[in-house]
Specification:
The structure is a single chain. The protein folds into three domains: 119 residues, 2-Layer Sandwich (Gyrase A, domain 2), CATH 3.30.1360; 150 residues, no CATH class; 162 residues, no CATH class. The protein contains 18 helices and ten strands. The strands form four sheets. It has a four-stranded antiparallel sheet.
């Protein structure tokens, strides 16, 4: 089942309440994101026990199953196939299957209710807004990764003086998407906020249209692309509200003609005379602030950003940083924030290796680490977060310490004049090396970035090895070959509940 995405999807569907309980299906790099009609019909404990599931996360309006990179796309496809076929049945409890001990089941349901109530309280307007903005940009990540890697290959060939006839073609391929990214942002914004996607794209296209150079706003001629993705986001959002206002007031015959016309006209004019200028000022401020932050307070900024990024990933809020990264890439050619934030993944890897070394009797946990470590080295930290450090408790904090140390290292060199940037977003860890850029040249930039990764690895390992596993090591040793681990919520030894073969008891 662990290798077969169809078997995994078939196991997941009844545990989330069956097809009738699923209202939407999507996925990001590592998570299957589900909209559910009735949260109470989900069996969290059974879901976590499905082979291949690294954890579950609840966000406002979304139930997320962490499956890891690559695998999540295949499982999502199989899951959608099952939904289309109307199969999957009901959750075991709903269908009358034995639920185990009544008291334990009642306590589990109570715990799930309390957790859901906590999540609802945490769904503040700010967090909800950030999540919706993230939903606009997450679908763009595959194109950003692909174009960024092509751009990196083109830059490498240019620096080496190889294939000069090919590099202009690579530049065209890698730059075309970035030149029109405002249109895609507009389409996704309208889709996310309930408007017509093509109207959102039409309004956002104003931002990148070359003819805007003939328009003057606030006494200054506009430049094509001014405001970038922030301007496109604001334009499409305005267009969505104008469209909804029109549709609520015009009858059917007039709606067909007047609604799209007024949406494009009103939103387009406001975009030209207000939003592009304002968004351009904000984008400039973002670039100036990011540069000042690292060149002036680099060590402190790196310490804070590297140390806090894993909690943002855990909450799913790291996707809200995509507009900032994209804005910096549009303005400066690279984002200086991503390499600093990538140090969090290095701390996570170091912590996972320390867990692997110390908990040598926990065979199922070591199997999980071996499976998730390659993704962690490439900067995808969620499998290690939800499969290893977060369930254990303290290793998550020591992983954050490793990220803080790596971030401080990169920030120190930014203060000394060697800035480290990335020409695209998406890849991280070792996968970011081909995309590195900086004023000191690729070699110096790569050396600083590599030094930051090494610092994160070593600090995360040492902090976890010496301070992150005291109770867990004692619990495992007490459990012997059974692989007992300590439950961080109850602080007492419990059998390891991760799936996988267990060694036979000694005869």
């Amino acid at each position: 089942m662990h290798k077969d995405p169809h078997a995994t999807a078939a196991a997941l569907l009844p545990l989330v309440g069956g097809p009738a309980n699923v209202t939407s299906v999507a996925h990001c790099v590592t998570r299957l994101r589900l909209g559910l009609a009735d949260r109470s019909r989900v069996d969290d404990t059974a879901l976590r026990a499905v082979p291949g599931v690294l954890g579950v996360v609840e966000d406002a309006g979304s139930y997320q199953v962490v499956l890891g990179p690559g695998r999540v796309a295949r499982v999502t496809e199989a899951f959608e196939t099952l939904l289309g076929a109307g199969t999957g049945g009901e959750a075991p409890e709903a269908s009358g299957a034995p639920a185990g001990d009544d008291t334990a089941a009642r306590l589990a349901r109570r715990g799930a209710e309390l957790k859901a109530r906590q999540k609802r309280r945490a769904a503040t307007p700010l967090r909800t807004a950030l999540r919706r903005v993230a939903n606009v940009f997450v679908p763009l990540i595959p194109a950003l990764i692909g174009c960024g890697i092509v751009a990196g290959v083109g830059g490498l060939l240019t620096n080496l003086g190889l294939l000069p006839g090919l590099t202009p073609a690579l530049t065209a391929v890698s730059s075309a998407f970035m030149a029109l990214i405002a249109v895609f942002v507009g389409v996704n914004t309208a889709k996310e906020f309930g408007g017509t996607p093509v109207l959102g794209g039409a309004v956002a296209a104003v931002v990148v249209y070359p003819g805007v150079a003939k328009v003057t706003a606030f006494g200054v001629a506009l430049a094509p692309g001014q405001g970038g993705v922030l301007g496109a986001l604001a334009a499409a959002l305005l267009g969505t509200y104008v469209e909804k206002w029109c549709r609520a007031r015009f009858p059917g015959t007039l709606d067909v003609l007047l609604t799209p016309t007024l949406t494009v006209l009103v939103s387009g004019l406001v975009t030209l005379y207000v939003l592009m200028y304002a968004a351009g000022a904000v984008a400039t401020a973002v670039g100036t602030a990011a540069t000042w932050l690292l060149t002036t307070t680099g060590v402190l900024a790196g310490l804070v950003l590297g140390g806090l990024f894993l909690p943002l990933v855990m909450l799913g809020l790291h996707q809200a940083l995509i507009p900032l990264h994209t804005t910096l890439i549009e303005q400066q050619g690279h984002t200086v924030l991503l390499p600093v934030l990538a140090m969090a993944g290095a701390g996570q890897v170091g912590a996972a290796v320390a867990v692997y070394v110390r908990l040598r009797h926990d065979t199922s946990l070591r199997t999980t680490i071996r499976s998730a470590l390659p993704a962690g080295l490439l900067g995808v930290g969620e499998p290690l977060i939800y499969g290893v450090s977060l369930p254990l408790g303290r290793p998550f904090l020591t992983a954050c310490a490793g990220g803080a140390a790596g971030g401080a290292f990169v920030g120190l060199f930014a203060m000394l004049g060697t800035d480290v940037g990335a020409t695209a977003i998406g890849p991280s860890g070792w996968a970011l090396f081909p995309l590195l850029a900086g004023g000191a040249g690729w070699a110096a930039t790569a050396a600083v970035y590599g030094g930051g990764l090494l610092t994160g690895y070593l600090t995360g390992f040492a902090a976890t090895y010496f301070f992150g596993l005291g109770d867990h090591v004692r619990a495992v040793r007490a459990g012997g070959e059974t692989g007992a681990v300590c439950d961080p919520e109850h602080h007492e030894p419990r059998p390891a509940d991760r799936p996988g073969p267990r060694p036979a008891p000694p005869r």
